Amino acid sequence: MKTISRFALLALVASLAACSVLESDKIDYKSAGKAPTLEVPPDLTQLSRENRYALPGGAVTANAYQAGIASAPGLPTAVSAIGDVRMERAGSQRWIVVNRPPEQLWETVRDFWQESGFLLTTDQRNLGIMETDWAENRAKLPQDVIRGALGKLVDSVYSTGELDRFRTRLERTTNGTEIFVSHRGMEEVYNTARKDQTIWQPRPTDPELETEFLRRLMVKLGVSQEQSKILASTSAPAQTARVATVAGQPVVQVNENFERAWRRVGLALDRTGFTVEDRDRSAGTYFVRYVAPNPDKKEPGFFSKLFTFGGSGKTDAPLKYRIMVKGQGETSTVAVLNESGAPETSANAQRIVQVIADDLK
Predict the structure, then answer these.
(1) Structural domain boundaries, residue 296
(2) Which of 69, 154, 279, 288 could in theory staple to 150 by disulfide, Cβ–Cβ 3.0 to 4.6 A?
(3) Same domain, residue pair 172 and 217
(4) If you average pLDDT over each of 36-40, 55-59, 255-259, which comes out highest?
(5) Domain tally for the chain?
(6) H/E/C letters for each residue in the chain?
(7) Global pTM?
């Protein structure tokens, strides 16, 4: 009996992929690495033992987790609740509100991600932050007879070409906890005309994937499957965010009050790869910096290109900014300040407000 090479097997599976049914409605993640040491310092990323998964990672977000930030009641939002758990939505963003303190939720949320097939590269209870490693959704592989028969052997030679990681942020409120989940994705693409080399590059955030994990987390917190689907499907009024210029400075104008804008800008920063070093909610300020996600690659990543002066691809030092949210009635303005707190009017500021505006839509 002839031995089928891994390459022949890969070609066979690929040829059948076109006629296979993709189980896109299922989630079956497999971590790309092995369990790292937790409590990772903000600027360090865990190195994968497989070169295939040596991807640029997002820096750790810091927040005022223990500050006891108050959540104003009666906000105009689409809210559905079952027991002490409810889901809120604004545009493409959703988050969970639970009437329990973070201390009662931390272990449950940690178990949830591990049970979902992820390892945690960041587990900082004092900051209210968890972040998974890069993992592949194996449910996107062709579900056919051959894969079912060969099982793990096919999995070892076939890949979806996509990886995902998730950041979870728990924020204390006067009545409990708000839980935010943000997604970051990468995809493998050819970078030569001969298609003999590939690189990993960022792919767009997937709000539907964020919502699905929030829904599953709600089940972990005691909501039934049927109830969680009802909560996750609740619609919300369309929100408007637009870029404008005020006194020569680029800003984002949002048709929401400060409370709502503050939450949504924080989630947008998590989604788009900023590092939030600190924040002062009373002043409406996020203190952020940008760390190049792809320092060892000759080909700069998307975010590296976005924030590199002159397009040289060099990011010798992090760029520090302040993102200020200022509310006036039912509208808010988001502006970029430099490290010293002066209004920023550079091309970088224009790019930053555009990124935030696009995520708030």
Answers:
(1) 239-361
(2) 154
(3) yes
(4) 255-259
(5) 2
(6) CCCCCHHHHHHHHHHHHCCCCCCCCCCCEEECCCCCCCCCCCCCCCCCCCHHHCCCCCCCCCCCHHHCCCCCCCCCCEEEEECCEEEEEECCEEEEEECCCHHHHHHHHHHHHHHCCCCEEEEECCCCEEEECCEEEHHHCCCCHHHHHHCHHHHHHCCCCEEEEEEEEEEECCCCEEEEEEEEEEEEEECCCCCCCEEEEEECCCHHHHHHHHHHHHHHCCCCHHHHHHHHCCCCCCCCEEEEEECCEEEEEECCCHHHHHHHHHHHHHHCCCEEEEEEHHHCEEEEEECCCCCCCCCCCHHHHHHCHHHCCCCCCCEEEEEEEEEECCEEEEEEECCCCCECCCHHHHHHHHHHHHHHC
(7) 0.61
